[in-house]
Design a protein that fits this description.
The chain is α/β, with parallel strands linked by helices. It has two domains: 219 residues, no CATH class; 376 residues, Alkaline Phosphatase, subunit A, CATH 3.40.720. The protein has an eight-stranded mixed sheet with strand order 4-3-5-1-6-7-2-8, with helices on both faces. It has a five-stranded antiparallel sheet with strand order 11-12-13-14-15, with helices on one face. A hairpin with a 4-residue loop joins strand 12 and strand 13. The radius of gyration is 31 Å and the shape is globular. The relative contact order is 0.12.
């Protein structure tokens, strides 16, 4: 086939027209249901203004210029078309994978991170498919698109096309041609006036967002600073009538605007303090450090004071839960070591999977049959999905176990805890962020994350000490206790053997520690040592071996760090230390790869519909793999005989939405509830088995660990005093005491940042079942759900304005829900600005 220059130019123009047209069509498709149909029809022509202008400009450059102008025009058009082609293929590919819209600033951020390139390349297959489709469609339409455009352009300017002139012998001034072009010109002028009028009179939201066109949006997003919109005006708590006096033990530095009086600095704060305790250190200058200067030009940093926090509700004035108090009275529960397992993409409904859950019903429905033998076979497979999670949590999956004992079951971890013992399992916990490392900051440091895109927290100074820094403080207090604090006497008794030991903190994972500056974050939060992919894959690494298998673009399966886990535990015992170990699982991260020799189960029905469930099926296999791994971690504690003195905290970083849950999959700019529900378990064989429901966030992890350490007698008097003081400084409530959903008319509000951080905010409350997804710029809708009537958010209410949504909510859920929604929007905006103040972010 010979491709002439004329044919090539026609293909080039067709490719541009197809790319910008399909891009806009996909964009409108994703938002069409959120706009009243009549408005969508009326304003529809205004959505294509930029595409029309772009195509007209390209036509002039390609077909109406001559000489040097033609060469330059063609070069410019080639550049614009190629960019539009790449962008449109990326947009379609991203939609095919996630059902969501791609944002170019986020793609740039991922691509600029060397460890994030693999994440982008994971969508290469869908990108290539979309690119092939665009090219094929453009080739098929090139002559048709050229004919239509040429005919319209020639009629508009009363000049016959080359084809028409050759066929009819017409001159440009022919009366016949002028007569034919007049109606087209008239209709074009009328259409232009109408579209211009509609464009000037239509509302900005959401129609400006719908009118964006590639490649303009690409340059706009890369050039503009992040949209962190919806300014709240004056920084004041919007529900002022509910602000009351604080009646809890705190210490605040500097001047407080609160009417309450702060007490004197605590005794443990004298002397040199480790990083994280700057606001207690009287020798620290009250000014912004060089690190914080990168975030703003403030000279006086803001410190967090619980006395001045109108959102904080404490439960530390409540008694410990009765079953726990009784157990602590009856026997000793030593906590020598603390292990925090942060589980990647860990949904609460798979820790463990339960019969009758929404996910279970989705799996069974894929078989499209009521045949009991078929369904029994499916349930037998599912009964072996999360056996370790069942034992850890004490929650039964409710499946009939198969009589055949598999090899994996034969080697499964056995729970040695006595009947009725095993720890505290929490239901109702939500993550504070669906971006992993923002969630990590919350879990390790008890702080709310910064509601801006990506990990700016790495450059900021945390407004609370992280738990690793708390243990550093305990170490330092022991060093100074004999000279600087003689009034503290070390206790004598059965636990004195652990009181005098120093803490060591270690982070362990099998994937890269460089992505999103995780290495810098770990160091900043106070980990003394980190073992990640970069350490274990070195040729001289202690347990390096040939053939280490990468299972995803981040690194290796969890079992590659198994020997390092044993080393850490062994060295801790050998050195007579106390261990804080954190391990981050990774196999349940996209693309949910498992080792080649790992047996993959088919949980969904095979056949034509399996493609729809492929991602979820891969995820479930990864869940089974990690479940076994968690059991093997517990075996290490049994082997080294420290299980009865180790508190193991299992917590998810965030959930993971799939097509089975929502129209949009993944966590990126997706506020669906399945991305927020996470497991939280405080495991100890000597603690009573408790099942607690608390509509809280993982901000409660740090204060709960401190509360357990103090009330099990696992700290000496000096450390206990410091821990009791510090427990009162954190925003989260302790989960070993009755959770306080309300106090004096105030609600315990829950906030969750939607990945990447600065676009949407989840707002909820422990007092009511309502939930709001609050947009932080004009590109997103307000979303309301009632988790009592719609626990899986299958039919949430949406609106592009708050007033519009309140009207819908009042009609469906009543005035109480409408009032709560109005308050939630105000409180959410307040929290966003307050978090920026706390992090000294401008």
């Amino acid at each position: 086939m010979i491709i002439t220059r004329q044919s090539s130019i026609r293909l080039l123009f067709s490719l541009l027209a197809v790319c910008v047209g399909l891009s806009k069509g996909l964009h409108l498709l994703q938002h069409a249901s959120s706009i009243p149909r009549a408005h969508f029809v009326i304003y529809f022509p205004t959505f294509f203004i930029l595409e029309t202008l772009l195509c007209v400009s390209a036509w002039v450059l390609l077909f109406k210029c001559t000489g040097l102008k033609s060469i330059l025009g063609t070069a410019v058009t080639v550049g614009i078309t190629f960019l539009s082609y790449i962008l449109c293929a990326s947009q379609i590919g991203f939609y095919l994978v996630t059902g969501n819209e791609i944002r170019w600033d986020a793609a740039k951020a991922a691509g600029s991170d060397p460890e994030g390139v693999g994440l982008l390349l994971s969508g290469l297959k869908s990108f290539m498919g979309a690119a092939s489709l665009l090219l094929t469609l453009s080739w098929l339409l090139k002559n048709g698109v050229y004919f239509v455009m040429n005919h319209w352009f020639s009629a508009l300017f009363s000049s016959p096309s080359i084809e028409t002139a050759d066929a009819e012998g017409l001159l440009p001034s022919s009366p016949r041609k002028a007569s034919a072009s007049s109606p087209i010109r008239l209709w074009t002028i009328m259409a232009a006036v109408t579209v211009a009028t509609l464009r000037l009179t239509r509302p900005q939201v959401p129609y400006n967002h719908l009118s964006g066109a590639i490649p303009f949006t690409f340059f706009q997003e890369l050039r503009a600073s992040p949209k962190q919109g919806h300014k709240t005006g004056e920084h004041a708590f919007p529900l002022a009538a509910l602000v009351g006096e604080g009646h809890f033990k705190v210490w605040a530095p500097g001047t407080s605007d609160s009417k309450s009086e702060s007490r004197a600095p605590p005794a443990w704060s004298s002397g040199h303090l480790p990083p994280g305790f700057e606001r207690w250190d009287e020798r620290m200058p009250i000014r912004q450090t060089g690190e914080n200067d990168t975030l703003g030009n403030q000279t006086t940093p803001s410190f967090y004071s619980p006395m001045d926090d109108p959102l904080r509700i404490t439960n530390l004035d409540q008694e410990i839960l009765e079953p726990l108090a009784r157990a602590l009275k009856d026997h000793k529960v030593p906590i020598t070591h603390v292990i925090l397992v942060l589980m990647e993409s860990a949904r609460k409904d798979i820790f463990p999977l339960k019969a009758g859950s929404h996910l279970h019903e989705e799996i069974l429905s894929s078989y499209n049959t009521r045949n009991p033998k078929v369904l029994q076979g499916a349930n037998e497979k599912l009964s072996s999905l999360t056996p370790v999670a069942e034992k850890l949590t004490g929650e039964s999956g409710g499946f009939m176990k198969s009589q055949t004992i598999s090899r994996s079951q034969a080697t499964e971890w056995e729970n040695a805890a006595a009947p009725g013992m095993g720890g505290i399992n929490i239901d109702g916990i939500l993550t504070g962020s669906t971006l992993s490392f923002k969630s990590a900051v919350m879990n390790y440091c008890g702080t709310g994350p910064l509601p801006v895109d990506f990990m700016v927290e790495v450059k900021a100074k945390n407004y609370q000490p992280c738990i690793m820094q708390l243990f550093d403080l305990f170490n330092q207090l022991k060093e100074n206790s004999t000279t600087n604090n003689p009034r503290f006497q070390r206790p004598h008794g059965g636990l004195e053997s652990i009181h005098d030991r120093n803490w060591t903190s270690v982070f362990l994972q099998s994937i890269t520690g460089l992505y999103d500056d995780q290495d810098k974050l770990n160091e900043k939060m106070g980990f003394q040592k980190s073992i990640c992919r970069e350490q274990i894959e070195e040729d001289d690494a202690k347990h390096f071996h040939p053939g280490m298998e990468e299972i995803n673009y981040f690194g290796y399966p969890e079992y590659e760090v198994y020997p390092y886990l044993r080393d850490v535990v062994n060295n801790t015992i050998k050195n007579n230390e106390r261990l804080f170990l954190s391990h981050f699982t990774s196999t349940t991260h996209h693309p949910w790869g498992t080792p080649k020799d790992y047996p993959v189960e088919q949980y969904f029905a095979a056949g034509g519909l399996m493609a729809k469930h492929e991602d979820m099926n891969q995820y479930l296999n990864a869940v089974r793999y990690v479940d076994t791994w968690l059991g093997d971690m517990m075996k290490v504690l049994d082997e080294f005989e420290i299980a009865n003195e180790t508190l193991v905290v299992f917590v998810g970083d965030h959930g993971q939405a799939f097509n089975e849950d929502a129209p949009v999959s993944g966590t990126y700019e997706n506020g669906h509830i399945s991305n927020f529900r996470i497991p939280l378990l405080f495991r100890h064989p000597l603690l009573p088995k408790l099942q607690i429901t608390a509509n809280a966030t993982s901000m409660s992890v740090v204060p709960t660990i401190l509360d357990l350490l103090v009330n099990t007698g696992s700290l000496n008097e000096m450390d206990s005093t410091a821990a009791l003081d510090l427990m009162n400084e954190y925003e989260g409530q302790s989960l070993i005491r009755p959770y306080q959903a309300t106090h004096n008319g105030r609600q315990a509000w829950n906030f969750g940042i939607v990945n990447p951080g600065g676009t949407m905010l989840s707002v909820g409350s422990a007092a009511v079942p309502y939930r709001l997804i609050l947009p932080l710029n004009e590109d997103f809708e307000y979303v309301f759900s009632n988790l009592d009537t719609d626990p899986n958010e299958l039919t949430p209410l949406r609106g592009w304005s708050l007033d519009e949504l309140i009207t819908s909510v009042q009609r469906v859920h009543g005035d109480k829900a409408g009032t709560w929604l109005a308050d939630a929007e105000k409180v959410g905006k307040y929290w966003v600005e307050e978090q920026k103040r706390r992090w000294n972010y401008q």
